[in-house]
Every structure is written in C-alpha cells, then in structure tokens.
Amino acid sequence: MNRITPLSQALVLGVLIFVISSCSKDPIRPSIGPVDPPPGDSSSYTTGFFIVNEGNFNWGNASVTYVDNETGTPYQHIFQQANNRPLGDVAQSMKVMNNRGYIVVNASNRVEVVDLTDFKIIKSIDGFNSPRYIEFVDSTKAYVTNLYKDISVVDLRTLTITKTIKTPEWTEGMVKYNQYMFLTCIGTFSEPSSKRKAKLLILDTETDVIVDSIQTATEPVGIVIDKKLKLWVLCSGGWDGFSAPVLIRVNPDLRQVEKAFSFPGTDIPSRLNINPTGDTIYYLQNGIFQMPVTAAQLPSQPLISSGGHLFYGLAIHPIDGTIYASDAIDYVQDGIAFQFSSSNGILIHTWETGRIPGSFCFSETRNRKSIN
C-alpha cells in the first residue's frame, strides 16, 4: 500500500512552499470547525495529554486536541479557543517544561509558548527556518531543529533565540546524553537521498559547538536512548526509496555504530519510540511493531495490525507505557487517536482529533489509571 510518511509530508511541504508562494491565487481553505469550550477545571490541562494536529499545508488549520484523563473527554481547537486565533500552519510537535507548552509550528516558522493553566500564549517565538522539534537542555535552554538549515538555541527565561548553530543541513530528532545532544542530520534538503550525507551530530551543550559526528544509514528520522544508555536510530532509507531502511544501535561513548537491523518489505518505518523502562522499542511500519532492545532480529509481525487504519502518529505514555497512535484517514477528514495496551495490543480507547494528528504530548506527572 502506498503511504505518505511524516518525512515525505515534510518534503512535500518544502517543495510546496516555493510553488505556492509563486502563485497569485490562495488555495481554498476549509473552515476550522467548531471550537470546544475549555474543561470545567482549567488545571486539568496539567493532568491530561495533547494531540498535535498538523493540519493541511498552507491552509492554516493546525490545531491541538486536549484529552482529560479523568473523564476521557476530548476538547478540540483548544489553542484557538484560548487565544481567539488559529494556531497556524502545520503544527509539527509539542513538549512541556515547567508548566509551559512549547508548540512547534513548522510552516509558520515559530514556536508558540502557552501556559498550561489556561493555554493562553505567553509568547510567540519567531525567527526559525521551518522548525521541527524542540528538546530541553535544562530549565533555561533548549535546542530547536530546522528543516532547511541551522540549529536554534532558545533561552527559556526570555523566550528568545539567542544563538544559531550553523549547519547547512536538515536536522530532525534529538536525545541528550551527559553534556551532549545527539541530533539526527538527514542532509541537505535540496539534494536527493542518494547524495545526502546522513549522520548524527554531536553537540556540546555547554559550548553550543558541534564537536563530532557519526555516519548513519540514509535518512535518520528518529532517535531514542535505552536503559543501557545505547542510542537507537531509525533510518528510513530515503523518502524516494534510495536504500533499504535500517535500525541502528550506537554506542554514545565510543561514538560508533554497534549493530544494524535491515528492514524487509517496501513499507517505510517511522515514529521510533521507547517505553518508560527503556527496554522496548516501538515503531510504525504499516502496523505498530514492538521490539525488545535485547532482540537478535527485527519482529516479523506487528503487535497491532493496521486493520485498514492509516497509522500516522505514535507515542508511548511516559508513565504507564500504554501505546498511543493516530489515524490520518485521508489527510482531508479529521483524524482519530487510539490508546492500546502494551502487553497485548488490545484497544483501550478511541478519540476524535483534528486534521492530520501527527504527534502526542503528555503533561501529567503522576501515575494514573488507564482511561476506560
């Protein structure tokens, strides 16, 4: 089955920026749809989770869905409801730090910082170059990767970009290890996969200097760290099918690849995740696959089959380890999100979302029972 992966969406987005900006007519934009009232107790924004809905490129219909863990109720378009304006164009990702939400809005070239007590804007940070992901160094500093070039350094106290770390290449996922940030570097955006120099960049967080790099397979799109402090990097093989996808294990101390697993078949893997105990990896490849970090080979069958769903987003709850996945349906209708058991893949709950649900963000910090 032909599938649009999150990475190919980014590539299409980049091409369309040029094409559409040269056109004289605006595209037809659908209405945002009904906006839900906020939860009765606004403090519940800190005890639930968020579904980040990308929206369609150049339509300005990105949104955030909030799910209250006590009731299981989804609330749509909470950013627009709180701030009386749309979120923007292509919401890529979101992370939480110190009771603030940081929403990375890719095509709008900004990060929206919101207060989790009411989801109102604290500040809109501009000046990015098609931002992708944000990762916190500590409570005062964060890095933001960009689609086209450079890594942005953000001061979390002033909410400003204080520095730009020069790189002509596309940077994507990040993981912090000791004083270093390891970043996946896909290569120069404008080049085909066959010519891109894929690697991990090693960034010293104390000096904001790239000190080393590790060559990887083509198109490293995801990175996680396991309980033994090994890095796992998912390499898609290239959006244009240049080479076979590979999952590699990296020793961050020796700075070398220790092991590589090649994927069979034609479906491109994406959305690499790891469970809270750091012993099990998850990824999408049509279905949802589960793999112990001690496994000698890739799993041959998914834990959860697609069952006709277009799985697009994937996340593992950071406390209870349950599986969250989203269905983009046809990229035109509003999507669906699911919660599954990690032990047997049984469906626990289903929620409606906004357009193209791509990622999840968990705000809660305490244990809780699964939503039923």
Structure description:
This protein has 372 residues and is mainly beta. The protein has a single domain (6-19, 36-362), classed as Methylamine Dehydrogenase, Chain H (7 Propeller). Helices cover 6% and strands 44% of the residues. It has helices spanning 6-21, 78-83, and strands at 49-53, 63-67, 74-75, 91-97, 100-105, 110-115, 121-126, 131-136, 141-146, 151-155, 160-165, 170-177, 180-187, 199-204, 209-215, 220-225, 231-235, 246-251, 256-262, 270-274, 280-285, 287-292, 311-316, 323-327, 334-340, 347-355, 357-362. It has a four-stranded antiparallel β-sheet. Strands 4-5-6-7 form a four-stranded antiparallel β-sheet. The radius of gyration is 19 Å and the shape is globular. Residues 12-33 and 365-372 have low confidence and may be disordered.
Task: Summarize it.
This protein has two helices and 27 strands.
Q: How would you classify the helix and strand content by structural class?
A: mainly beta
Largest sheet: 4 strands, antiparallel
Strands in their spatial order, largest beta sheet: 3-2-1-27
What is the CATH C level class, in words?
A: Mainly Beta
Record field, number of beta strands = 27
End-to-end distance, in Å?
A: 32 Å
Instruction: Please give the share of residues in helix.
Output: under 10%
CATH-assigned homologous superfamily: YVTN repeat-like/Quinoprotein amine dehydrogenase
Apparent shape: globular
Note the total helix count.
2
Spell the H/E element sequence: HEEEHEEEEEEEEEEEEEEEEEEEEEEEE
The second-level CATH architecture is 7 Propeller
Low-confidence region ranges: 12-33, 365-372
